[in-house]
Amino acid sequence: FHNVEGTWRPESLAMFTVIYYGLSCWTYGLSVSSGLFIPALLVGAAWGRLVGIGMKALFPTQDWVSPGKFALIGAAANLGGIVRMTISLTVILIEATGNLTFGLPIMITLITAKWVGDMFGEGIYDIHIQLSSIPFLGWEPPYGASNIYASEVMSSPVTTFKACEKVGVIIDALESQSHNGFPVVDTTVDSFCGAGANGRHFDMNQSYSIDYGHETTFGRYRGLVLRWQLIVMLKQRLFNEYEQDWHTYNWQTFRDAYPRYESIESVVADITDREREYTIDIRPVMNPSAYAVQHTASLTRIFRLFRAIGLRHLVVTNDRNEVIGIVTRKDIARYRSRWTGGKYLWHELQISHN
C-alpha cells in the first residue's frame, strides 16, 4: 500500500494481476456487490506498471519513462476496452489525477481501446444486457434494417377492444395478457356504442377479425388504450348501465390512481357476474392519435420512433387503416448486427416476453 517509486516488484505485480484478473472474471455477474469498474482499473494499473518497469529497465536514463504514468494509461486502456467508454471515462480519470496534461494521452488510449475491442465484439455491459434478455435499443438501427418491413417484425394476432366492449371481455384479456397497450377498433364502419339506459343501440356480436385472403385484420383502427386506464374504469365501475357514474367521472379519477395502479386481480374480486355482461365506452379515455405505421414502413423508421420518442408499442395498419399487427420494444430489440471478419453478421436474439 505504499506509493513510493521503487517499492513495486515485478514478481508481486505479476502475481497480483493474474489473481485479481481471475477474481474479477469469477465474481462479475454474481448477485453480490463485487463490482467491475474498480477491479478493471486495478488490473489495468497493475499490468501498466509492469510495462512501465520493463521500459524503465530498457531505458534507464530516459526521463519520460515513468512507471506511474504507464500505470495510469494501463488502467485507462483496460477499463476502456471492457466498458467501451471514451469521453466520460476521460473526465473521470482526469478528475482522479487532477492533471489536465493527461487528457490527450488518456483520450487517445480510450479511443484505441474501443476501436480494437469493437473489432472482436461488444462491450461487457452490452453482452450482459443480451444475456439478461433485456430489450435495450442501441444508438443506431441494425445494418440492413431499411430492407425489413413492419409486416415482418410485428406480432400478430393482436388483442384488440371494440369502442364499446363487454366488461367480461376486458377482464379476460387483462388476466390472460400482460401487455400494456391495446388497440381500439371498429369491426364495422357503422357500428355504434352507447348505454342501454339511454336508449342507444350497441351490437356486441361482431367478429374480432376479418380475413381478406392472406391478410387477417382486426377492425378499423380508432386509437390506443392503456392497461391502467382500463383497470381504473373497472375499479370505478364506469359502465354504460350505470348512468349516474358515467356522467360524474372526470380526469381527476385517473390522476388519483397514479402512480401505483391496482392489479386486475384485486379489481375483479368486486365485480359480479351480472356486471361482466355490462359494457364500457372506451372512447373517452383512449388516445385517438396514438402513433401507428403502415405495414410497408421500414424497420429503420420504426427503430427511430422507438428510440427518439420512447414508445412501448406501435400499431401496424394496412392501406384501409385496419389493424393487422403491433410492434413492441421487444420485437425490434431482438435484431442485432455487427461487423465481423469484413462483413456484417445478422442475428436474432431470444428475448423472453414474461
UniProtKB/TrEMBL annotation:
To which protein family does this belong?
Belongs to the chloride channel (TC 2.A.49) family.
Ranges of residues in domain CBS:
286-345
Taken from the UniProt entry, a GO cellular component term is: lysosomal membrane
Q: What is this protein called?
A: Chloride channel protein
For this UniProt entry, the molecular function terms from Gene Ontology, in alphabetical order, are:
chloride channel activity
Per UniProt, the keywords (alphabetical) are: CBS domain, Chloride, Ion transport, Membrane, Repeat, Transmembrane, Transmembrane helix, Transport
Protein's organism: Medioppia subpectinata
Task: Indicate how the chain sits in the lipid bilayer.
Answer: Multi-pass membrane protein
Question: Where found in the cell?
Answer: Membrane
- Membrane-spanning residues: 36-58, 100-117
Q: Entry's InterPro entries?
A: CBS_dom (IPR000644), CBS_dom_sf (IPR046342), Cl-channel/antiporter (IPR051280), Cl-channel_core (IPR014743), ClC (IPR001807)
Principal localisation:
membrane
Q: Which PROSITE patterns match?
A: CBS
